[in-house]
Amino acid sequence: MRYDLSVVASWIEPGSKVLDLGCGSGDLLHILSVDKDVRGTGIEAEEGKVTRGIEKGLSIVHGDINEEVRDYPDGSFDYVILSQTLQQVFHPAGLIREMLRVGRRGIVSFPNFAYYRIRGQLLFRGRAPVSRELPYEWYDTPNIRVITIRDFRRFCRKEGFAIARETAVSTPHHHEKGWVVKFLPNLLATYGMFMLRRRDASR
């Protein structure tokens, strides 16, 4: 399993109810159901990935995460996960509000655009960065947001999302190994990972 997903899995309490937005073929949900007895549901836009997830015995809905998440009643889940998808979301504040409406906690992760190698490409080569974490050219990328760890903290303060937990990791794209970055995370981490709750939530 990807290193960043193993960190997310470590944050989930056993026996929880989990909704994974943009779950792909359900790698995280599968591990959570086997190792932590989690009752998981996923939403995925790509039909082939939905089929592969269902073949694993997972409950995955085919559809748009922005629309499908609205169908769930308040407080349906313990955790709602948005892993490495935020940079492709048109209305991030609205989606995170929905996550925190249907879930007690929201977990968000994204590629850190302030990573020093990405900064270096723009500074020294004068070109839009392409990396293992952001592997697209400017003209064919699905990513419409440029997010840094520092920017995301500021966004949470502005929108009223309380950060219950955060970490920064350095790991190559889709790699199983990596490490937690504690020194200068906005400069040295490839991914930022946050657990959020509503500011008015008691716990």
- Number of helical stretches of at least 4 residues: 8
Overall body shape: globular
Give a count of the beta strands, DSSP E runs of length 2 or more. Answer: 8
User: What would you report as the Rg, rounded to the nearest angstrom?
Assistant: 16 Å
Q: Provide the structure class.
A: alpha/beta
Uncertain segments are none
Instruction: Specify the biggest β-sheet.
Output: 8 strands, mixed
- The residue fraction in helices comes out at 25-40%
User: What is the chain-wise order of helices and strands?
Assistant: HEHEHEHEHEHHEEHE
Summarize this structure as a short list of keywords or feature phrases.
about 200 residues, alpha/beta
Q: What would you note in describing this structure?
A:
This protein has 203 residues and is of the alpha/beta class. The chain contains eight helices and eight strands, in the order αβαβαβαβαβααββαβ. It has helices at 3-11, 27-36, 47-55, 65-68, 92-102, 116-125, 149-159, 185-188; strands at 17-21, 39-44, 59-62, 77-83, 103-111, 161-170, 179-180, 191-198. It has an eight-stranded mixed β-sheet, with helices on both faces. Helix 5 links the parallel strand 4 and strand 5 (103-111).
